[in-house]
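ping. complex inputs:
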Amino acid sequence: MYVYDEIDQRLVEERVAQFRCQTRRFLGGKLSEEEFKALRLRNGLYIQKFAPMLRIAIPYGMLSARQLRKLADIARRYDRGYGHFTTRQDLQLNWPKLEDVPDILAELATVEMHAIQTSGNSFRNVSTDHFAGVAPDEFVNPLVWCEIVRQWATLHPEFSYLPRKFKIAVSGSAADRAASGVHDIGLHALRAADGEIGFRVLVGGGLGRTPMVGIAIREFLPWRHLLTYLEAILRVYNLYGRRDNLNKARIKMLVKERGPEKFRDEVEAEWAHLKDGPSTLIIEELERIALRFTRPSYEQAPEIELAKSGPIASWVQRNVHAHRIPGYAAVTLSLKKTGVPPGDVTADQMDSIADLAERYSFGELRVTHEQNLVFADVRKAELAALWGELRALGFATPNVGLLTNIICCPGGDFCSLANAKSIPVAEAIQRRFDDLDYLYDIGELDLNISGCMNGCGHHHVGHIGILGVDKNGAEWYQIQIGGNQMPAALGKVIGPSFARVEVPDVIERLIECYLDERESEVERFIDVVQRIGIEPFKERVYGGTPQEPAHRKRRLAIA
Amino acid sequence: MAVLLRNRRIVSDGWQSLEPRRWLQVGEDGLVPDFPAAADLIITPRLWALRREDLLERSGRLGLRLEPEDDPGAFAAELGHFALLAVNFPKFGDGRGFSIARLLRERYGYQGELRALGQVTRDHLFFMDSCGFDSFALRECEDPEEALSGFGDFSEAYQACVARPQPLFRRRLRA
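pong. complex structure:
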């Protein structure tokens, strides 16, 4: 967890004062609706269907127990007692009052938090791997780099009025849990043969209306050059990105229009002027930032054998993750219990989670882009006790990586951009696949739902993606399959869309097809789609007579 | 005379903006009109391209107005002719002018007055000042007295820019 210094704190407080003044001017009629919109969005404040929505930044998903308690306090005092964790590792409050927002921001500033640039056409929250620093497969701990990028991207004088929003993700391991391929810039931290740290730089990925996978424009950028190179990319984008059409304004469209090679040449030409300039990073800064991170003081913890049977076994299998320190494990708190909107947590639950984080995981936790929470540093010897407590709170649903661990945007229940609701669809699917044995038989499967083509629910990279569409004012759902997070791949639409009530049936038919086609239990849904293509799935959903699915027999056998 | 902010003070503006069309129109005598000899004139790249010699013959100073799509590098060799460069911000959210200002100051070494005009509000001033603007033609409805406080919105910035050529991490080290 990064701890602010005096200047970090001062900037956040000055931002509160600035926004208080802007709000006062707006309420006093001195700022137009349109202008205030551009300013409030920079502080994460939307005007939604029923009320404003405030998106609070959780930089690269790291949160302390103290901060979570403050969020609970704010949710209770200024909202309706709950919050929603998003795919950008942020927290959204759905019911604050506009005139209270300056006070909420002031409260956040007391715990080194803010809502700076959580929306609007500027840099958004930097995101990363939720197992950063603890994953055994990590080459480079991305956290220090995230903080360096966060500081550089915060209130940037030149790049605060970009053509469109801009998302940067940093990843430091082989398994790209940060989904960096679908970001405006994805940074893969690497180590050269001589140990030097550098970055593979991907540009032009993104979901939304025109989903694209980022293209590598640099295979190895030595760390000293990180900020000057980012500056070069951003300058090219700021000057030449489209500003006439919001749907074509993301950097991916510029990369596409120019062609990746020409785009790279322009960046390199710009960089030639900036390289080795004052923004070149220095080792002293890396050390300074690294020292401002709290670090768990790991003990000599016994390496214990984790339960392979009994009720705890499935939780251990799905929600407990390997750790680089012997005797420790990372634990995912599933926010995907059937019947609860994915990512939603009440204020009381936040307080309970904060207590648990202090008792079991050094007082820190992380928010994942899959809208779950992670205790990154739990002693294996205490897993059983933690499991018991999480179960009592409803956060031990053993479904991480499985079909019911649905990523889902707030959708038409809250969001004014949405074409269709998404939360009830998630719930209907969760109910359909409530049988844990069946769920385990299906195995790893990412199912993502977005209520509109802006794609906040990451439907393009779900193994199964569901997209809410509007047809003559009615809500319909388009289904795609074959998307993947790492390596990033975009799903293909299987055909005409469906009414909401049909969606669980369609998912079930897709699953039946998979179970019939798979060659072994280790072949996952996505593997089968990649092997046989989408045709057999289409056939199963749209055409032909229903067959007696083979898996039903298996299901009976399991039962 | 219009009011503007220059070097964080409210001053009246002595510059006169010329619309190119009138000054390129050939009159009955077959000639284009003469420019006012002593006035300080803000011209466009088009006027500069077509009537450069006439403009340079005068005693008054010259300013050049750039639009966000203009490439400042195209004028790099001629910046010495201009006592003022004005960069237009046609919309509240159009941030190209911030990059143009840094390029003019940092890459092309422009030292004269650099003016932001168009949709210039107090909420832009801190960033504009950071990027090298030193004069600001506020949009009409801004109160210049109140706007002055916009320069103080923040007391620091992490990044290197014209106003702070060293990024915070290097300045921290020196302190």
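The helical segments of chain B are 20-24, 45-57, 96-107, 122-130, 144-147, 168-174.
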